[in-house]
Please model this.
Amino acid sequence: MTQSVLTIDQIRIHPGSVSKEEAMREAAGILQDAGAVTAAYFDAMLQREQTVSTYMGNELAIPHGTNETKDAILDSALSFVRYDGGIDWDGRDVTFVVGIAGKGDEHLEILSQIALIFSEDEEVARLKAAASPEDLFALLSSVNG
Model:
């Protein structure tokens, strides 16, 4: 990966809650605004979610498209949204929704960086305590390689 997959503009904090579908729509919208995906990517996320839940544990969901919809991905990028009110993700409590778009196989490297961050309870606690998108960006800097 040569460019940053996450910028400050792709990070949001919401005090409340939304539905799972609304969270996925926002994740896809941020990726689309970043120029990383086409408008078709939200539907690709919905298709993936119907096949397998993108809940990852530790209050994290990583909605993403299917292999069949790779043509909706224009560039590699992340969206990172924290919902302080939590989201019901198929009966699981989710605070963090990380939308991912990976060109080629880049999504595997990006996913491994996210997995490393969320494998540590202390890191998750720091992400939950971050007061601003800038603070979150600093904590997530490792995803940019």
